[in-house]
Design a protein that fits this description.
Blueprint lengths: L6 E2 L10 E2 L5 E4 L2 E4 L17 E6 L5 E6 L4 E5 L2 E4 L13 E5 L2 E5 L6 E3 L6 E2 L5 E8 L2 E8 L6 E7 L15
Parallel strand pairs: 1-2
Antiparallel strand pairs: 3-4, 5-6, 6-7, 7-8, 9-10, 10-11, 11-12, 13-14, 14-15
């Protein structure tokens, strides 16, 4: 008996013939499934606390910044060590950090503190006019914050805000931007 493999379908009943409901080390492609890259030891020391998020940001010049976040800090891999890139006062959120890249700036959110921004080689700093958000993404020259709360933004778990066009630091609504 030959079984036709239909693909990765984690939402279906695992007993469904021909589907993969759970898998390791494979990735979907336009041709089907392929082997994922092998794991490689980073050579970095352990973080001071359990990591809750990680992110690799590719900047406009092709360089990459690798971040790992714990409940209170954000670290960047630099020279074989973890360097703190946390904002002043660290973090207190119970939500994990999420990241996005906007040009050469890396942004972070956790729905407790306002959106933070880190320029190349620098630490994160709060964007004073930005909301707190649980999710952040960039699209068409805007930064979008979803599931927002705080200050003038109010508590909008189903709401979103976006920055001014091509300006991640401006969050004041204006038709011109």
């Amino acid at each position: 008996m030959r079984l036709e493999l239909t693909g990765f379908a984690p939402d279906l009943d695992p007993e469904t013939p021909g589907i993969l409901a759970d898998c390791n080390a494979i990735i979907p492609t336009t041709q089907g499934l392929a082997a994922a890259n092998s794991l490689v030891a980073s050579g970095l020391p352990a973080l001071a606390a359990t990591p809750t998020a990680a992110y690799v940001a590719e900047l406009l010049d092709g360089t990459k910044r690798t971040f790992a976040a714990t409940g209170t800090d954000i670290y960047e891999s630099s020279g074989g060590a973890w360097v703190s890139r946390s904002r002043a006062g660290n973090y207190s959120g119970t939500e994990r950090q999420r990241f996005a890249v906007f040009g050469n700036v890396v942004l972070n959110v956790n729905r407790t503190e306002v959106i933070g921004a880190a320029s190349p080689g620098g630490a994160f700093a709060d964007i004073a006019t930005a909301p707190t958000a649980k999710i952040i993404c960039t699209a068409s020259g805007f930064v979008m914050a979803l599931n927002v709360s705080g200050g003038a933004f109010g508590d909008q778990p189903d709401g979103w805000w976006c920055s001014a066009i091509r300006d991640h630091t401006s969050w004041t609504p204006a038709a011109a931007t």
